[in-house]
């Protein structure tokens, strides 16, 4: 297994497919899958060298399994801001593998603190954060998730690298 950083649009089709999965739409706060052209424009911006966003793909035998996204907050800290695994690979431990490799890469890049946010109702996300030794804080944000019935509490989790 390896982690590949997005530096061009080669992996965009897989990124788009991951963003169109039902679970991605449910937890995104949107009502529909993203518009492909708008997402492509956004993707080009976030993979540029001027962006504060890093996207990494988990590959197994050169096949994309999923992605993790980090948002740089400052020179020492970043946010684990998005992740998803293709549905056919979910439940097989790939999310933990992806997260572990993502955290290792972020440490290599010089980050010492990673934050993440997870809904108290998103058990797989919470399990993944616990598995990767994040500490849950009392800080939370309420976010509107219309396809999941309204407002949800997203708690902040922190990991020192």
Folded structure, characterized:
The chain has 161 residues and is an alpha+beta fold. The chain is 32% helix and 37% strand. The chain has 5 helices and 7 strands. A 7-stranded mixed beta sheet has the order 1-2-3-4-5-7-6, with helices on both faces. The longest helix has 15 residues, at 94-108. The two termini are 21 Å apart. The mean pLDDT is 95.
Topology:
Elements: E1 2-5, H1 12-20, H2 22-28, H3 36-46, E2 53-60, E3 63-72, E4 77-85, H4 94-108, E5 113-119, H5 123-131, E6 135-145, E7 150-160
Parallel strand pairs: 4-5
Antiparallel strand pairs: 1-2, 2-3, 3-4, 5-7, 6-7
Short description:
The protein contains 5 helices and 7 strands. It has helices at 12-20, 22-28, 36-46, 94-108, 123-131; strands spanning 2-5, 53-60, 63-72, 77-85, 113-119, 135-145, 150-160.
List keywords for this structure.
single chain, 161 residues, alpha+beta, 7-stranded mixed β-sheet, 5 helices, 7 strands
Decide which structural class fits the backbone. alpha+beta
**How do the strands of the widest beta sheet line up side by side?**
1-2-3-4-5-7-6
Give unreliable regions as ranges. none
The shape, in one word, is globular
């Amino acid at each position: 297994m390896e982690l590949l950083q997005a530096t061009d649009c080669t992996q965009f089709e897989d990124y788009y497919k991951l963003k169109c999965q039902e679970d991605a739409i449910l937890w995104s706060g949107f009502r529909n899958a993203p518009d492909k052209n708008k997402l492509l424009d956004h993707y080009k911006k976030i993979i540029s060298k001027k962006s504060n966003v890093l996207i990494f793909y988990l590959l197994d035998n050169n096949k994309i399994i999923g992605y993790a996204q980090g948002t740089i907050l400052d020179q020492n800290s970043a946010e684990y801001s998005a992740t998803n695994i293709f549905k056919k690979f979910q439940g097989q431990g790939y999310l933990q593998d992806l997260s572990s490799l993502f955290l290792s890469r972020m440490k290599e890049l010089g980050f010492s603190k990673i934050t993440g946010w997870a809904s108290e109702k998103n058990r797989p996300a919470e399990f993944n954060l616990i598995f990767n030794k994040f500490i849950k804080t009392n800080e939370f944000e309420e976010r509107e998730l219309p396809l999941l019935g309204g407002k949800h509490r997203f708690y902040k989790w922190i990991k020192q690298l």
